[in-house]
Amino acid sequence: MTRYAALLRGIMPSNPNMSNEKLRGVFTGLGFESVASVLSSGNIVFTTGETPGAELEKRIQEALSAELGIAGGTVVRGYAELRALLDRDPFAGYTHGRETYLTVTFFKDSAHSRVEMPTDTDPRTKVVGYDDQARAFLSIIDNSAPNTPNFMVWLERNYGKNITTRTWLTVQRVVKKMESPK
User: Fold this and answer.
1) Residue 59 burial (CB < 10 Å; 0-12/13-18/19+)?
2) DSSP classification of residue 162
3) End of a domain among 24, 54, 80?
4) What is the pLDDT of residues 20-72, one digit of tens each?
């Protein structure tokens, strides 16, 4: 049995069909164990003996769509992958805060074999790099101005909707929850 995190795209906590209780219910109904939610933005941790990858992501997404009408995407990462990302500390020397977001954009397993670094991003976005092992794009976004930098638009335009972004703090919280499943 392995511990995983499902990072769901497009979850809006204000939508009654997207509540943590209902999301956990779908995962429990799929036969997963130790199902728990992290925050209220589509982060579900669970345990299963299934092999990770596209088939597991597809099975979860089909259940979310059929039972709750959630059409967004599902990206699954194992505990070891996320723990190793934290241990590599790609944001060393930076601090996540209200005006500076450290972000991790996760790609589905087979979404892209090669990720190109942007050359024309908003000046308020600093690209840290792409982490091959975690299959994740790492960036720092300056939120000090009232309008949001267009980096997320750039990511979606270049890589489609088979991605989902979390703040570094959220990734840390997900890993912590995976370490203590109750």
Assistant:
1) middle
2) S
3) 80
4) 999 999 999 999 999 999 988 889 999 998 877 788 999 999 999 999 988 88
**Chosen domain end from 62, 80, 98:** 80
> Integer distance in angstroms from the first to the last C-alpha of the chain?
16
* Cβ count within 10 A of residue 148: 14
**Do residues 159 and 97 both lie within one domain?**
yes
- On whether both 91 and 175 belong to a single domain, the answer is yes
User: Helix (H, G, I), strand (E, B), or coil: what is residue 47?
Assistant: strand
- Angle at the Cα of 182 from the Cα atoms of 134 and 23, rounded to 5 degrees: 65
Count of CB atoms situated within 10 Å of the CB of 156? 14
The DSSP H or E segment spanning 18 is: none
Full residue range of the structural domain in which residue 11 is found: 2-80
- Classify strands 163-167 and 33-37 as parallel, antiparallel or unpaired: unpaired
Q: Which among 100, 133, 102 is positioned nearest to 115, based on CA atoms?
A: 133
Domain count, the chain: 2
On whether both 91 and 173 belong to a single domain, the answer is yes
**Token output for 170:** 């959220």
Q: At what angle do helices 54-68 and 20-29 cross, to 10 degrees?
A: 120
Same domain for 73 and 114: no
Rg (CA), the chain: 16
What is the pTM (predicted TM-score) of this model?
Answer: 0.90
